[in-house]
Amino acid sequence: MAGVTATGMAGVPATFSSATAQIGGFLSKKPYAPPLWATHLSPMPCHTFSLGHFPTPIHKWNLPNLPEGTEVWIKRDDLSGMQLSGNKVRKLEFLMADAVAQGADCVITVGGIQSNHCRATAVAAKYLNLDCYLILRTSKLLVDKDPGLVVNLLVERLVGAHVDLVSKEEYGKIGSVALADLLKKRLLEEGRKPYVIPVGGSNSLGTWGYIEAIREIEQQIQQSSDVQFDDIVVACGSGGTIAGLALGSRLSSLNTKVHAFSVCDDPEYFYDYVQGLIDGLNSGFDSHDIVSMENAKGLGYAMNTAEELKFVKDIAASTGIVLDPVYSGKAVYGLLKDMAGNPAKWKGRKVLFIHTGGLLGLYDKADQLSSLAGSWRRMDLEDSVPRKDGTGKMF
């Protein structure tokens, strides 16, 4: 199954038949036709924008110390783009189409100071000629200071996003919905036409992004015909990705067991939140029946132990896959701990891990990672090394 591709119309690989592969297809608006197995869900989106590079590849992942007969494969949604990268792109394809359809001239969204979702939203908005307003949560000590040009903030501010800072205490007291409504009210009074995107893009409309991802996986499996997955594993940070994966898996031919490792809040919170999302699509399912939630938040959201960071470094060094410390890093850490503690549960299983991106989050941990990163040295040169032609000159 190495180098898996999906198949499009008339046997043409979807890589070449997709809108993003055609000149002028990327960033274009297109009608949306859901998978046949999802046509009973409602409300159903009418259009999407092509914001990502799909299908993303699936390949075998040689993780160390797996139970006997267990295989882990990885779907590289971290390769869905560069500036927009990760799972947020799939949700934004639907959310941005809705914003444009409603005549919005700007979008509002909320997240942490290094939110991948906020960065992706800022880029997508600018692609579509919309202004973007970000409400970012930071510490009480930093809320009155310039947040700087670090990691996601650098991209957001380069593309002209408007940044409003709130403290974690204010965020906890008021909540993301009320904060977004307050900013929306102010923008309406200025004559603007704002569209609010929830934290992580996780509402029932955004859920369609990962319903569509299940169709993509289904097509990739059909094309390869030599692998069937028993389990799908993913990090859970706001609920929309796992809602789409769980619902799509249950409705489609995959019918895999879906596992979510929550990196903030507790599993019961996410069971309830996912229930709200799938109820919003009139699915008729109970979230407890379609997904298994595990707690992987550790010290807390975007906080890491030294052991977790060493794990991220060790996986990169042994497999070449760079995990982010906030989402996928914690999820894979939790997965391998569960495999070590319960090998019989995973023995002989074929597991598909969804890498949801977030590479930029590593830069925020650079100081903590400095002692773990690869070594360096000054090259030892002999006293006289004859120059060879054709190697270039430095002036």
UniProtKB/TrEMBL annotation:
Organism: Zea mays (Maize)
Pfam families per the UniProt record, alphabetical: PALP
Main location: mitochondrion
Enzyme class: lyase
InterPro entries: ACCD_DCysDesulf, D-Cys_desShydrase, TrpB-like_PALP, TrpB-like_PALP_sf
Recorded superkingdom: Eukaryota
EC number: 4.4.1.15
Protein name: D-cysteine desulfhydrase
GO cellular component: mitochondrion
